[in-house]
Amino acid sequence: MKDFDHLMSVWQAQPKKEHLSVDEVLKQVKKGIRGITSRLYWAIIAMIATLVWAFILMFFMAFKSPATTLGILIIMIGMVMYLVIIVRHYHLLNKHDITQNPTDYLDTLKEFQKTRSKITGWFYYTYILLLSAGLGLYFIEVLENAPLYFKILTYGSTMVWFLFTTFYIKPRMFKSEEEKLNLLIDRLERLQQQFD
């Protein structure tokens, strides 16, 4: 009998699953998605401004070497590819309203998370490779008359920056975004289970 009483006290001490407030979850999800879409929106604006600047540079500056123009063109191709991806992700998050159909919205978030992690995995390296090749070709003419130490400093700092962003900033940035999306998806799934 003593074991039964102990078992009952352990069973009763188990934490009860808390019911989530629909309004609170929807508010948190909207806030989280607004943060992600806001970052995507400003990334789109920055990319368009940079593309316009690169276009002006390529067509209105007189470069002697075709390698310089080719370098700018390669950079622009990488930027256009990146712009297409972030515009697609932005529209994917904005096409559904969470209050209209939460199940569709949850599916949209899962699709966004899957495509974002898959695309950012392979595309980021392609993007960095295109930027590196483009800048390398661009710097050939731009640094033509620069002293050797300045060329080494420029190429070296560019390489260090790309390595830093690839191996330090990128993993942390995408891990943070992944954690936020996981939290939002988890909350929506728990909310959905409450009504099933």
How would you explain this protein's 3D organization?
This protein has 196 residues and is mainly alpha-helical. It has one domain (22-195). It has helices spanning 2-13, 22-60, 66-94, 102-142, 148-195. Helix 2 packs antiparallel against helix 3, helix 3 runs antiparallel to helix 4 and helix 4 (102-142) runs antiparallel to helix 5. It is elongated. The two termini are 38 Å apart.
Which sheet architecture does the biggest sheet show?
none
Record field, number of beta strands:
0
Q: Structural class, judged by helices and strands?
A: mainly alpha
Uncertain regions spanning at least 5 consecutive residues: none
Distance between the amino and carboxyl termini: 38 Å
